[in-house]
Amino acid sequence: MGSGKAKQLEDTVVLPGQAAPPEPLLGSAPVLVDADQALVPGAHFEHYVIEQEIGTGGMGVVYKANDTLLNRTVALKVLPPHLCQRREFLHRFAREARLLARIQSPYVVTVHTLMDKGIGMVMVMEHLDGETLEHRLRQSGPLSVKEAVHVFDQAARGVEHIHQIGIVHQDLKPANIFLTSEGHVKLLDFGVSKLMDEQDFDQAGTMLGTLLYISPEQIKGRRVDQRSDIYTLGVTLFEAVTGRLPFERKTNYALMHAHVQESPPTPRQYQAEIPRELEKVILKAIAKEPQRRFQTIREFRKALLHHQGIRFSGTRPPAVPPAPRLLSPTEGMATATLLPTPRQRSWNRRSLLGNPLFDGLALAGVITLGLLLLLAPSRGPATGAADAKQTVSPDKYASLKKVWGNPAR
User: Fold this and answer.
1) Could you give the CA distance from residue 139 to residue 137 in angstroms, rounded to a whole number?
2) What digits encode the pLDDT tens for the residues 127-180?
3) Domain ranges of the chain
4) Per-residue confidence at 100, pLDDT binned at 50, 70, 90?
5) Residues 116, 153, 171, 229: which is the catalytic one?
6) First CA to last CA across the chain, in angstroms?
7) Average pLDDT, stretch 77-97?
8) DSSP letter at 234?
9) What CA–CA distance (Å, rounded) separates 396 from 344?
């Protein structure tokens, strides 16, 4: 597909079924200034010094800046001036900040504050070093199974947290999963997220999401819940381990039809080394009907870890031999508490030589040893070959060390 069409399909779409209800902004709309001119490197905005532009998307331009008051690096997400002229985008931007303010999770980006200034709406967020999963896949190709489990285990933890407080992300995709340089995962972009218990314009025939990853119920404009996030995360996992999407079409209509009506290909069609158990996890996550998917993200994460033999807590089994058996409480009391530790005797030659019993035993031992040496047949010298045998343990993680290349497209 052409680059322009591909970019369109990758963007978050908002196709409204009815007008958004009124929602108060932070204040009266200020006189707008072109952010491209006001936020150049070295420019001062409030108590922030702009360092560089680091990203752009459908709901804002992101700048790296220095917070001179708190001496820290932050990210400024600014709603573009042309979108500030549209009231629904202003509401959605403010809504994202309010939802993020409710989330306290190490797997979700943190928002510090929201400002309504002359350059538009500005969201101050934590700055992250690293890259998005989208960038990683484009630069290096599919993830290995080990890498994919590591990334999606953390992503599922973040999704589980937002579900617990009643938020549906609605736009999970590689561009919104950030991989930090320390190996952590952060969820980004809650611009089309919603509260599950809300009855608002999001559920009145409005389609929100990204067409390449969108769930069937989002396309149909039906009420969505946490199972919609499971679908989009499953599509993302499909792409992460195969290098391809389950549905790639040239038009919006064909793509939406495929999500709603067509059966997805199996991941092993594109990457034969994917374990069958992982394939089952992916296909269940992207089932057409929500009731046929995992019903909670916790079930999804548990199945993801189970096929790799990883404990559900997310920690891997120790690779070292088990420690010696510890004494039971009753044994510990009998040995360590009830019985005193015997005092060690100091045996030396001086104390033994003056003992008549020792002298007699020593003499009998010498006589016995001499008789045995006289009567025993001669033998060849020992080679020690049996003692030299060693058993080399195979590398049980050898199969996990293979990193797949990018398959031919």
Assistant:
1) 6
2) 999 999 999 999 999 999 999 999 999 999 999 999 999 999 989 999 999 999
3) 24-126, 130-306
4) very high
5) 171
6) 12
7) 84
8) H
9) 45
- Closest Cα to residue 143, out of 264, 34, 23, 267? 267
Helix, strand, coil share of the chain (percent; to 5): 40, 15, 45
pTM for this entry: 0.69
Task: Kindly report, residue by residue over 299-318, the tens digit of the pLDDT.
Answer: 999 999 987 766 665 444 33
Helices (H) and strands (E) counted in the chain, each on its own, are 15, 13
Find all residues with CB under 8 Å of 258, minimum gap 6, and list them.
247, 249
Q: How far is it, in rounded angstroms, from Cα 124 to Cα 117?
A: 12
B/e letters for 169-203, b = 16+ CB within 10 Å, e = fewer, are: bbbbbbbbbbbeeeeebbbbbbbbbbeeeeeebbe
Determine the topology of domain 130-306 in CATH: Transferase(Phosphotransferase); domain 1 (1.10.510)
| Exposed/middle/buried for residue 130 (C-beta within 10 Å: 0-12, 13-18, 19+) | middle
Query: How does DSSP classify residue 336?
Result: I
Strand spans (E) along 33-126 = 44-45, 48-57, 60-67, 72-78, 111-117, 120-126
Is 171 catalytic? The answer is yes
Q: Is the dihedral of CA 271, 274, 276, 279 positive or negative?
A: negative
Selection from 17, 11, 59, 22 nearest residue 203 by Cα: 17
Residue 98: DSSP 8-state: H
Q: Taking the CB of residue 327, how many other CB atoms lie within 10 A of it? A: 12
User: What distances in angstroms separate CA 300 from CA 149, 157, 160, 187, 264, one per listed residue?
Assistant: 12, 10, 10, 17, 18
CATH class of the domain at 24-126 = alpha beta
Structure tokens at 262: 């067509």
At 200-231, the pLDDT tens digits run 444 444 556 789 999 999 999 888 999 999 99
